[in-house]
Amino acid sequence: MFGNPLCGSVQSLTLASSCTILRALRPVTKSLATRSSKLAPASAVKQLALAYKSPYPHDHLAPPLRRKLVSPSSRANYCIHHTSSRLANVDSIAKMTSTTAADQADARLGSEVTPVHYDLTIRTDLKDLTFTGTAEITVTVHKPVPHLTLHAASPLVPEAAILGSSQLKTESARPAEHIRVDEKKERVQITFAGGEIQKGEHKIGLRWNATLDDSMLGYYKSSFPKKDGKGKAYYALTQFEPCQARRAFPAFDEPAQKATYSISLISRTGTVSLANTDVESTKHLGAGGAFPRTDLLGDQFFQSETEKEVVGKTVKTEGKTETVVDKVEQDDADFKDDWEITRFTPTPKVSTYLVAWANGEFEHIESSFTSPLTGKTIPLRVYAMWDHIKQGQLALETTAKILPIYEEIFDIAYPLPKLDTLVASDFDAGAMENWGLITGRTSLYLWDPKKSGLQAKKGIVSTQSHEVAHQWFGNVVTMEWWDNLWLNESFATLMGEVIIPDRIEPSWRVHSAFITEHLARALSLDALRSSHPVEMPCPNEETIQQIFDALTYSKGASCLKMLSNFVGEEKFLKGVSIYLKKHLYGNARTQDLMAGISEASGQDVGKMMDNWLSKTGFPLITVEETEKGLKVRQNRFFATADAT
């Protein structure tokens, strides 16, 4: 995901310049709290200073979004979610850095059952602002289990479930006897007739309903003005990162639980349906828009309802939005009872948070790029509502420019048959890297050459470069768990704001801008006592939500840039290519990336980088002259020294 992280306390604004480095390295005599055994090595400090010596020391490109939204007089220690308007309190993050094995285990689904393939069918009703869905999930059961456990969360309401074998025979299907919904843990536990589920491959059939709320999470609604000026109409889109796919369909909602997907969308005729991959077929259904029947999901399944038990009820405010339909704006004449089903080609193996779809009266502009590796021509499109579509041209042109560059850097062809970008007016993140269907906020994607300035142009280029970087780094290879989130976001930040813009617009002097925008921010935040490591434990969903902060993005990207300068950019990117190829369509951890860069550079960089990534703060080197010579000591640097 991408946005402009707006970060805490007044220091993060006043220190946003390269002079922060000098302040961090200047000699002081006051003793600070944290001893050198807990810090990055002194040898790395010199590398840090050299790595960030700006060729343009007076260039300051403060982002307009930060100037606009953060008052210089603000002194609250906060951090705005890098991709969201929600506040992630830095102090609350610091309190979560200790966890137990039991906490970690409780946050994860077991390994007894893993998904192989999802057949998803979603029926969207933009008149009633509701959606219903069915799924056939092929799973591998590794040892006998008494029940199946998946993630599911409000507003999704499970209705029925059934179990069959992967080589399905109708008579072998086992209906669910009981569904236990745990609202607090956001899980459903399904018990089937016939006792234990034996080892082997099975299919789970599921049916559910939900409302399209305006939470900007899961599958939600957004609005746009009608062309005739008489009120507004609605469209619907998804936002699943980090743990919101479970609001749209029951799933094994963890990044390591990758599977392939076949998505089908039922919608009213006259609307456009989008998903991760290209359209395979469109079939007219007529009135009612009924779900297609399958061997497992037959008429009896659609008429049944499984007994449910709800536990762990909690009072929530986020995402609990009442859906109110304005009868004036939602005129019945706007909706024909005429439906169609759009089927999309299967995806590669992908994590749940990268699955995406949308439905609405979208318009689009189109281009393409030719792969330098395969020679294939890949269609590129930008979708938006009628009032915004003309301003999507820069995003489209940027996508066409940067895709061939990424293919050559990674030496891996873009793996999907198309790449769409959907621009939305109501969007929780700045942008989101859904595989094959990038979504983003209008304020970060629309460009009017007559009104928009250079800063807005730079923002669009860096945003789209960031999201396209994820199509490989994050989508082809995904972090194993959220404690390695920095692997995704820090790398995309470095690629999107430095390496790619520098290749297509060298006059922008992006290396200097990176210092003022990211390095200075990282140093400022990391000098606070409430800071946290780049890599930190994520024992539960609350912690996962909060690590999407500026420290993760800016310090992580600064550490990667330091590493790139240390080994050389060419060897750094070669190491990334080695890493991607070795873990293609799988999951990986920090040490896997470091192994790739070590192989490409011939230097063992893992131990050096571990000090920067797994520890809080950065070191201050103090040199004192004594009668016997020089005394050198290392302490953690704080924005304010300890009281004497």
Kindly describe this structure.
The structure is a single chain. The protein is an alpha+beta fold. The chain folds into 3 domains: 6-103 and 501-551 and 560-621, Neutral Protease, domain 2; 110-361, Immunoglobulin-like, CATH 2.60.40.1730; 363-480, Orthogonal Bundle (Neutral Protease, domain 2), CATH 1.10.390. 28% of the residues lie in helices and 26% in strands. The chain is built from 17 helices and 26 strands. The strands form 6 sheets. Strands 3, 4, 5, 6, 7, 8, 9, 12, 14, 15 and 16 form an 11-stranded mixed β-sheet that branches. The longest helix has 20 residues, at 485-504. It holds the Pfam family Peptidase_M1_N. Zn(2+) binds at residues 466, 470, 489. This is Aminopeptidase 2 mitochondrial. One of its GO terms (molecular function) is metalloaminopeptidase activity.
List keywords for this structure.
Neutral Protease, domain 2; 644 residues; globular; metal-binding; Immunoglobulin-like; alpha+beta; five-stranded mixed sheet
What would you call the structural class?
alpha+beta
| Average residue-wise pLDDT | 83
How far apart the termini lie comes to 43 Å
Number of helices: 17
User: What's the oligomerization state?
Assistant: single chain
Per DSSP E runs of 2 or more residues, the count of β-strands stands at: 26
Return Rg in Å: 26 Å
| Overall form | globular
Kindly identify the CATH topology of the largest domain.
Immunoglobulin-like
